[in-house]
Amino acid sequence: EREVHALRTGFDALLVGAGTARTDDPRLTVRLVAPGRTPPARMVLDPRAEMPSEAAVLWDARSIPVHIFTRRDAREGELERLESSGARVHPVAFDRGGISLDAVLAVAWGLGIRSILCEGGARLAATLLREGRARRLYLWIAPFTLGPGGVTAFPGIGREVWDRFRPALAPQLHGRDTLLVLDREGD
User: Fold this and answer.
1) What pTM did the predictor assign?
2) Which of 42, 54, 101, 108 is the most exposed place for a label (fewest CB within 10 A)?
3) DSSP strand E in the chain: where?
4) Contact 68, 107 (CB under 8 A)
């Protein structure tokens, strides 16, 4: 866990989808290591603006920015509720795959965010891979299985995508876990 917090310090923002925000209720902060130059902003893709006002990521939204990206047609009352919790809400275009990642990245760029660490979920990670938006992968392998209720890490991602990535570093052991770092070829 410490290694994940250290990794977070090298990015301008941390990104999760609505499912991960709802299921895991992450804070998305740096807690177990020195915070680095500035705490990373938090970004949540929440198309319908359904994140609860008491979500952990909003606890300190007034001191560490939380950017919530919603559909343009999300209910105004929900947008106002999130804003009153301290979040900065960005209604953006919606395309066939969900919230337009082009629109999200354009807003992020305008905010000065140049590097984003996506921490989940499965659909978002698969979309980033499928669209060629991921340049580096940090894959943590733990020695246990999730069983029949487990979620596929990268749904629908086949060999044609994985063939674009090569090891960037030797595998690293962290306790019982192994970290694989892969870079996309040509970057």
Assistant:
1) 0.93
2) 54
3) 13-17, 41-45, 66-71, 88-92, 94-95, 98-99, 116-120, 136-141, 165-167, 172-174, 177-184
4) no
